[in-house]
Amino acid sequence: MNNNKLLVLNIELKDDKESIKQYVDYHSDVWPEVIKDLKDGSIVRMRIYIIDNKLSMLLEVPKEFRLEDGIHTEPPSKVVGEWSRIMANLAKNVGGKPDTWKETKLIFDTEDY
User: Fold this and answer.
1) H helices then E strands: how many in the chain?
2) How would residue 74 be classed by pLDDT, with cut points 50, 70 and 90?
């Protein structure tokens, strides 16, 4: 029996080629401390997809996982905090602040039929 659930989150990057390239480049060689922090926490698996400046993150997490508790250890280590600041700087500004990951709502699943 699978004791995990899947969460899907979305965010927009700044709509410029350099920001998008930087984000993709950072994620082609994620810092080991960031990976360790995710794996030591509750993240079973994380995948990020991109189209234009829009990102979708798929998080496989234990059923008891609460997104409001965050995906990184709190308080973050110095390295993970720096990673998070860099990623936030590449996000689209919304109301003067960087966009944040927002959870989507499941509206259809073939498993229901």
Assistant:
1) 3, 6
2) confident
Whose tokens are 């600041």? That residue is 85
SS3 45: strand
In the structure, what pLDDT confidence band is assigned to residue 1 with cuts at 50, 70 and 90?
low
Given CA atoms 61, 55, 95, 75 in this order, what sign does their dihedral have?
positive
Strand 45-51 vs strand 4-12: parallel, antiparallel, or unpaired? unpaired
Alpha helices, H only, the chain: 17-28, 32-40, 78-90
pTM, to two decimals:
0.91
Report the CATH number that the domain containing residue 89 is assigned in CATH. 3.30.70.100
Domain that holds residue 78: 4-112
| pLDDT band at 107; cut points 50, 70, 90 | very high
50, β-bridge pairs:
55
